[in-house]
Design a protein that fits this description.
Shape: globular
Strand order of the largest sheet: 8-7-6-9-11-10
Order of helices and strands: EEEHEHHEHEEEHHHEHEHHHEH
Number of strands: 11
Helix content: 40-55%
Largest sheet: 6 strands, mixed
Length: 308
Amino acid sequence: MNKHLAVMDLGTNTFHLLIVEADQFGFNEIVHEQQAVKIGEGGINKGFIVPAAFERGIKTMQHFSELIAKNSVGKVRAIATSALRSAANGQEFIDEVKTQTGIAIEIIDGDAEATFIYKGVKADGCLSQQNSLIVDIGGGSVEFIICNKDEILWKQSFEIGAARLMDKFHRNDPIPPDSINALNLYLEDCLKNLFIAAAKYPIENMIGSSGVFESYAEITELDKGNAFDIKQISHYSFELDKLLALIEKIVLSTHQQRLEAKGIISVRIDMIVVASLLTRFVIEKLEISKVTMSTSSLKEGVLTDMMG
């Protein structure tokens, strides 16, 4: 029996809606929309959703609600993460969405977020018997999961997402060397638990979960002159030296250069700089030699749960 399911991932930068038709064999995508709501803009490190962002969020949820009604969806889940989790007026936003649309938003903690990301990447077929480090760079938080296809060995969510790092460190463009050094020292301090876990569980490869890793893949392929459609692939393997060269190019770039670059979606034009510095820091610190990208993340993990 076919049934229509909807999952919303309400992130710090982007609100995603995924509507699928599911049966016992899997699912077919019906609607996949993402809106650059930027709910954390102007207030992410102050723990407050500013009025303009609040309004954008409500409008997007009304739009999602219309799409859900139009597609006769039976079961709906809306998951909120870091920005709504840490905002003083997050509950007010949730109440307003419920009043306007009837959609009940669930706020999940970083631990649950990491578990859903693992389930999404696992369903994508990216994991093996070897240990992988899944990295999901969001706007508000970053999840690190050391795992294999059988189990999660260690996981933690850190409130060091790209919107937070940009607010703290990327105030001039291009980002100055002293800001890069300050960011690296900050990561060195914040990620101590990750280094301890990585020493305990040797990591075979790193898997970037959607987001900025999709941009790296798209830029790489477009630079080679190849056609690229993210919807047509589920994972992608990088050549490490080419990925590091691309990251260096992004870090040295100006806003205008990024704006003109093919393969970077608008919401990521500026945040890709600190996200790239974070990516490079982890690769170098943990001496990662193999990096892949999975297009699956939290929403696919939630969907796997909904499908039982």
